[in-house]
Amino acid sequence: MRRFFRRGLTYANVTATLALVLALSGSAIAGTTYLLTSTSQISPTVLKKLKGAKGPKGQRGKTGAKGAIGPAGPAGPAGAAGAKGDTAPYPTILATGQTERGTFAMEDENTGGSGHAYDSITFSPPLAPSVTLTATYVASGTTQPGCTGTPSEPTASPGFLCVYGRTASGTVALFSGSAASAGQADRWGAVASIITNTSAFAYGTWAATAP
Fold it and tell me: Full-prediction pTM beyond 0.90?
């Protein structure tokens, strides 16, 4: 037995056995251990060679569907005040359908015989040339065709001058100043009068609307 062991243990056997052990242990190490763990451990020139060439540009994809409208954002800060604009020109005539208003007052302190009191109703701006209005006096608490307002809120239908008496003692007449036509107003306005044998007065408001 001793002879066999001594005879079998030779340098070649030891070397073969050691090589087998190293081979087996080396494969185990190689399976679980890495020599390089970062690209910083590789030379930049070698790393550049390892990278592949840039491929061709792909085709452009189709346009996607329109997204939903997002919520409204917060209101922005108020802008600075703009420069002052030019003054608008004063109108030269009262345009069709537009209304202008005013007041009137007159008094006659006649103590005997017939007396007259007058007041002017002036349109500013005037009406268009050759335009006339129907001039109507409206006693307090009443209405007339084309004149359905009140002394507090005088109104007039297109083509009418409506004179609303707040208070009156006497007969009020209206006529145009240019032609003295009773019941009419010309483009400039009208004249209001009281004719009475005693003291009389009248005051109120008026409205005129261009036809």
Answer: no
